[in-house]
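Lecture 7 notes: from sequence to structure.

We start with a single chain of 198 residues. Read the sequence below before looking at the structure.
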Amino acid sequence: MKLALNLNRRYTYADYLTWNDNELRELLNGFIRQISPPHTPEHDIVLRKITDHLNNCISENNNRCRVFCAPFDVRLPKSSNETADNQIYTVVQPDICLVCDSDNSKIDVHGCLGAPDLVVEILTLASQRYDLNEKFNLYEAAGVKEYWVVSPKEKGINVFILQEDGEYDVGTVYEGDTQVPVQTLEGLTLSMEEIFNE
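Now the structure, written as tokens:
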């Protein structure tokens, strides 16, 4: 049964947890954004390839980082003092996120509380403006160190690295037969050819 939610009302994560209709949603500053299922075969193949590379690197290097894929709640509180469910107004579902949390304090039964180290969003026609604007600003403000915007259609990856001033750099576009360095996992590079070609 579809819930009758008010799109003009602000909700908290505590409200979000009561919605048991299996619809995919995000909260941006308390306002609902419905997520349309993006899972085309092209999207899923790219997601799986990136995830596999990240997991293989972590396994080979006994790294404490962990990879998570949507649906996976990433709660982004406004401050470290506002972490209760009824104080959190932003929760997102990144396609892929990497959490390098040495004391495992960010991961709990609900997902991730705080900024992941790396977020990967894979573009669809419906998500392009959202991922390049609202999500970009949101991840920058939250302190996500590395943000990838992946375009299966264009076979390109735009990588943004958080600078010391708390803002992303202008971004680096990777296209063609090149290697993409993963800043968060030192020494790892991903082959564009392997990601986008069957």
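The first helix runs from residue 13 to 16. Keep this in mind for problem set 3.
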